[in-house]
Amino acid sequence: MRTLTLNRLLWICGALLAVLFVVVVLALKVGAVPISMTDLAWNLVRVIVGRDTQLSSEYGLIIFGLRLPRIVLGIFVGAALSVSGAGFQALLRNPLADPYVLGVSSGGSFGAILALIFLPYMPLVTPLAAFVAATATVAMVFFLGRRQGQLDNTTLLLAGVITNSFFSAVIIFLMTTLKGGEDRGMLYWLMGDLSTPLAASVRWMFGLGLIIGIGAIYTTAADLNLITMGEREAMHLGVDVTRVKLVVYVSASLLTGLAVSVSGAIGFVGLLVPHAMRLLFGSDYRVLIPTSAIGGAIAVVVADTLARKVVAPTELPVGAVLAIFGAPFFLYLLRRRLA
User: How many other C-beta atoms can be found within 10 angstroms of the C-beta atom of residue 290?
Assistant: First the structure.
């Protein structure tokens, strides 16, 4: 493992942030209504210097009312899912694990579907119900995954798979009982959707939860490097394996629940981005966690931009775009692992 220095970490994160900035600018420019780079630059300068009153109502609505909130949501969701995926891969010591393997996604989706069916005209209820259901799923899988008072990886994985299958079956049952046309919005939500911007208060709560979850996982980064080599070896080196596994499980589940509650089930991000960051920068979790956060943000913003542009003026679910491009890469990773 290459020696990590603060200078190297800052250079890597700085380069990825530069890529993210370029992606955000392009995402602001691209859409059903194209905007020239010159106009976009002048409008951004006006906002920065406090002269946003000079913006035309059309530009203000398109850039700052529609596209920018959606991009911010994509950054939050991508960072949450990617770091969650990196955490679960370390927790389960399985490089093919992802944030949805323990049933958190299906549990949150179940709560959201119930809210959409019974309280369809109360938008804030949907993310709240999804987060509450995801949290309840986390607690249930945690207690099912304990064996002799310890968190057992195999039992935890089996409990998650069974829970995921159960909630998926219940969701399908609920969808089939709806009248024709009522399930279109739910289907988009289940496939991942960033078209509904977060309210300002919800955005701040999501951001706070994101910082807490990523920060908690990052505090275990050095211990995760040892645990991935074997739990017994890590214990001999002084790592409190039980505490680290609990922190990672709770934090990664929190991040997944937050993401699912506001965007639906966006797959492949938590599986593919950590792998891409490992290939580029190595497997040191002190580098992998921050780079996964930035890389996940880049991936989701790019996918959402394609979702808005490919069939404009209509749009595709962002989860479908990620699945189209993510599935071949997943097969490549699988073949590379088996080779």
Answer: 23
Across the range 278-292, mean pLDDT stands at 91
| Cα gap 161→172, rounded to integer Å | 17
Alpha carbon distance, N-terminus to C-terminus of the chain: 22
Q: Tell me the one-letter amino acid at 183.
A: D
Is the pTM value of this prediction over 0.70? Answer: yes
For residues 21 and 56, the answer to whether their CB atoms sit within 8 Å is no
Walk me through the domains of the chain, giving residue ranges and CATH numbers. Answer: 72-334 (1.10.3470.10)
With a CB cutoff of 8 Å and minimum separation 6, the contacts of 162 are 103
Rounded to whole angstroms, the Cα distance separating 101 from 26 reads 33
Spatial CB neighbours of 133, under 8 Å, sequence gap ≥ 6: 107, 108, 110, 111, 112, 114
Segment 161-210, tens digit of pLDDT: 888 888 888 888 887 776 655 565 677 667 777 877 777 767 788 888 89
Helices (H), the chain: 6-29, 37-48, 57-59, 68-91, 104-118, 125-144, 153-176, 184-190, 200-218, 221-227, 231-236, 241-263, 269-281, 285-309, 318-338
